Amino acid sequence: MIAQWRKATAAACAGLLALAGLAACRPSSSSSEKMTLTVWASQEDQADQNSWLQTMEAEFQKRHPEYAITWQNQVVASADAATIAKQDPTVAADVYTFASDQLGTLVQAGAVGQMSDDAMAQLKKQTAGNPTMVDTVTASDGNVYGMPLAGNTWFMYYRKSKFTEQDLTSLDAMLAKGKVSFPLTNSWYLASFYLGAGGTLFGPNGTDAKSGVQFGGETGAAVTNYLVDLRANPNFVNDTDGSGLAGLKSGKTDVVFTGNWDAATVRENLGDDWGVAKLPSFTLNGKQVQMKSFAGSTVYGWNPYTKHPVAADQFAAFLSSTYSQKAHYTMRSVIPSDTELSSDAQVAKDPVAAAQMETIAQTSVVQPSIPEMNNFWSPCENFGKSLYNKEVTHTNAAELTEKWMQSYKSLM
């Protein structure tokens, strides 16, 4: 059983000595517990002495003079953490960053520790009104492993001169006025229509493998029929290999769906005519249905094999604290997941940050992290290709939607 550790009481400040990649902090108190903590983080977060990670380590030491910490920083990207940690958790870092879709693998490998009561109190405050962020770090056993540092999802960019504010709430209204580029053949995006209509992946919280993929039935068939019409709309453009972004520059597209990673390109391609917003709704059986994107997070967690579990839990929580997330945004422009920061003056005036935070809080569902999710992507992509290639029609929409659902039963 993975122990749940309680946070020790923080105290006043202490001295700091930092070296590149290795920082030694030695408070004056002779009773301080000496320890070495190995930390995995991205190259960008620890590039030099003044980088975000080293700055947060110095701040953590100031807040915890009960520890005398030698920091051992190593470059391991969040996308690679689970692959490395699961091989031998006993030699993995004490604290490390990982992508939330790796949570199930890490829990299964016993490589990530359950967060303490104090960390849970912090998480509750930071995710008020945003249950999706809590779901990104909640495993199938209902416990929380890790703390979200930053969110990850997609939303909408558009040509402002084409649309009114009211148009932006409706995909159909935008299709009536401009060219809408959407990645119909990409599983990460296609699912948004079925999720918006009430479809589920592995239960309501994405953790029940036995529940499987539920995009079928009458509602699923109705969504498929909507997508048949979407494909046939002369203002629809399938977005592949960056064609949507290129179309913004050439004038061939007016709307694209992507994430914060493409913000600079959108601004460059549209100049002062660029806009960004959360996801729109679409018309299903005469009613407006909200599109819902997958959302995940970049997480900091701690290794249950650490020799210093209390400090490791505290530091993982601190790296994802409101203080650290604001510093991360200021130093590296990484959009925070903390809902408290949505009203921060600096963050609030950033339209991309606002769109991402609103999308995650209001129009998203958690991207499941259980291993069974790996079997979702290919059949969904193939169905999207069938839609795009006009193999799916109004005549066979219900039948092919059910065949798609049946294909998952042999995989799960």
TrEMBL record:
Q: Which SUPFAM superfamilies is this protein grouped with?
A: Periplasmic binding protein-like II
In terms of Gene3D superfamilies, this protein maps to:
Periplasmic binding protein-like II
Kindly name one Pfam family recorded for this protein: SBP_bac_8
Fetch the InterPro entries from UniProt.
SBP
Name the Gene Ontology molecular function terms of this record.
maltose binding
Alphabetical list of PROSITE patterns matching this protein: PROKAR_LIPOPROTEIN
User: What is the protein name for this chain?
Assistant: ABC transporter substrate-binding protein
Give the source species: Alloscardovia macacae
